[in-house]
Amino acid sequence: MRLLLNWLLSALGLLIVSQFMPGFHVRGFTAALIAALVIGLVNATLGLFLKIITLPLTILTLGIFWWVINALMLMFASALLRPDFVVTGFIPAFVGAIVLSLINMVLKALARDVEGR
Question: Among 56, 92, 51, which Cα is nearest to 75's?
């Protein structure tokens, strides 16, 4: 049940980011659900591999390089899901990755509060 809730919240986060972030486009809730699934799978496989390989660089940059990897994962998912999910460049992907992670953090915290009551 928690996995389904996280998937829905990630899709909602993508929709929210697409409303406020220029260069970040999602065509409807169904596209957001598919994009959230693909982003999750890409991050769990390729993203994990890249984060392990670039760990020394991530330590040198005090964790900032992970945002670069997250941006690259968003761009890769965008390449797979065009035209329903489009990120038009590295800067929108980089800023979108930061905003998306902050929105997902807030949404999941709110869901935990509701679930805990």
Answer: 92
Residue (of 44, 105, 47) closest to 75 by Cα position: 47
pTM of the model: 0.90
Burial class (CB in 10 A: 0-12, 13-18, 19+), 114: exposed
* Tokens representing residue 111 in the block: 């869901």
Contact 3, 49 (CB under 8 A): no
Residue type, 101: S
pLDDT in tens, 53-82: 999 999 999 999 999 999 999 999 999 999
DSSP states of 56-102: HHHHHTTTTHHHHHHHHHHHHHHHHHTTTEEE-SHHHHHHHHHHHHH
